[in-house]
Amino acid sequence: MVFKPETNTVIAPSSSDSALQNQQSVSTVASVSDTNQQVLKFHGVMPELAPSLRGTEVNCPLQVDTKGQLVLSRGIRDCFDYFLSSIGEKTESSIVADIRQYLAGLLPTTAQPYSYQLLGKYIDYLHQREKLPAAQSNSAKDFKTVASAMVKLRRQIFTPQEADVFFAQEESYDQYTIAQYAINNDKRLSTDQKAEKSAALLNEQPEDLKASMQPILQYNQLQELTTEINQRGGSASELYEMRKKLVGAAAADRLTQVDLQESQWQKKVDSYLAARAQITASQQDAVQQQAAINELRNRSFSSPEERIRAQTFEQMQANSNKKVAE
């Protein structure tokens, strides 16, 4: 979630390779699909980038219309964020100067004033955001209060259209996360009901958010609800029904198969570790014990990958035994 403001640590900028960077000529082409918008090419002197940005592609997909006016887009904020990501390597004032220099080399003079105005607003917003109070508790109500304050601040500094273009996606994500948090912490709901409500909530999201976030959101929710069911000793059928409601029957079937394979693997590992423990407890010398363990491992696991994985479990068991002994 976008609740915690970023902490900007300012240190002196590096001056290494400055002569080379100042002479660097960079071409940046905006990604445009509208034939009424112009492709932009950088034609100025590239500012000296912070070390972490050198060698990277400048993320400034800006656009102008046929009259040479700046087209309001999320790409403008992405451009600001690209340069501002080097806070800590360069001072804020240096970075702002770099952005203005880059905009001057990329945009026609007709588009520059609005870009500078948006930059000033964005810097003001970042400063004001630092002053917003953090959530007082891990409750959906407190998170909602903080998110509402953020939305209000953005529309105090930007016009409604500018705020929507710059922040719509993360505001949608914040609203989704708050609603999901409320579902997860509603003790009145069963696990199946949580899965059903979670799936419905995800389907209600804007298409761009759903397309970009669906896999990770579903994975996180699956992990949380699976842990909840396992911790209270829920049945396999309950686990399956939760998964089916959250990700569909086909995916639930695949996950059940994965569970079966993992269970079979764990039984094999447990049997192997028990036999290995008998060898290490025998009266054989160390060389004989290691030879017997190698033979046991090769006999128990058919592929090199399985044997390597088994050795990981051996190390985990050894570490566990060491802690018990201490």
Automatic annotation (TrEMBL):
Pfam family, one: Lipase_chap
SUPFAM superfamilies, per the entry: Lipase chaperone-like
One of the record's GO molecular function terms: unfolded protein binding
Subcellular location(s) of the protein: Cell inner membrane
GO biological process: lipid catabolic process; protein folding
UniProt keyword list: Cell inner membrane, Cell membrane, Chaperone, Lipid degradation, Lipid metabolism, Membrane, Transmembrane, Transmembrane helix
One GO CC term on file: plasma membrane
Membrane topology (UniProt): Single-pass membrane protein
Family to which the UniProt record says this protein belongs: Belongs to the lipase chaperone family.
Function: May be involved in the folding of the extracellular lipase during its passage through the periplasm.
Protein name listed in UniProt: Lipase chaperone
Species assigned in the record: Acinetobacter sp. XMZ-26
Encoding gene (name): lifA
